[in-house]
Amino acid sequence: MKLKAKGFLFDLDGTLADSLAVVERCWCKFGERIGKSAEEIISYIHGKPALTSLRHFLPDATEEEVMDYFRWLEKMESEDMEGVVALPGAVALLTRLNEIGAPWAIVTSGTVPIAHGRQQAAGLPEPKHWVTFEKVTKGKPDPEPFLLGANVLSLSPKSCIAFEDATAGIHSALSAGCQVVAVHAPEEMARRDEINVIINSLAQISVMGPDNNGDYELLVSNSD
């Protein structure tokens, strides 16, 4: 399988970095505070901005109360980096993109303190461009995050490949018009014909280029 693109957009949590333990640890503490089961909390939150999840679980709360929970969660998640590691192939892929001068950005629902902390804890190369919670008015699954990601690279969405693992993020990237590589795609997304490639690991990805048109060729192996 081969794809061509001029730039690359990466989700962070679950795509480049394994932060599952800390995410679920912190959100389960939130669930305990409001009397919701861990299963109910975990089944909803992944890939979505924290405020979206908080408003979902606190429909009767005032905005001030929601923001109090938001700040509490942000502090907890930004200070807890235990178990955060790079996913297989992530460091090598980003290093390769830097070596060949390919534009790339991280597009995450996390806030700056959380996103930067996890990028550093995982030992990932730091991107020149970030799209974080603070930079968008509508988070994933809305297309805005990936539209902004393409914009910060000065590229059209269709000339970018987005790497995503969560349903909300895949919807966001597809709606933005990006080519999509799904990493460990949820079962309901694996059936979406619009997804260009489904992989188990970023270790399956290699990138060549650029060619005379400024395109980079992404190659996908069958195994990682």
From TrEMBL:
Coiled coil: none annotated. Keywords: Hydrolase, Metal-binding. Gene3D superfamilies: HAD superfamily/HAD-like (3.40.50.1000), Putative phosphatase, domain 2 (1.10.150.240). Its EC number is 3.1.3.23. InterPro entries: HAD-like_sf, HAD-like_SPP, HAD-SF_hydro_IA, HAD_sf, PGP-like_dom2. It comes from the Bacteria. One of its GO terms (molecular function) is sugar-phosphatase activity. Pfam families: Hydrolase. This is Sugar phosphatase. The keyword ATP-binding does not apply.
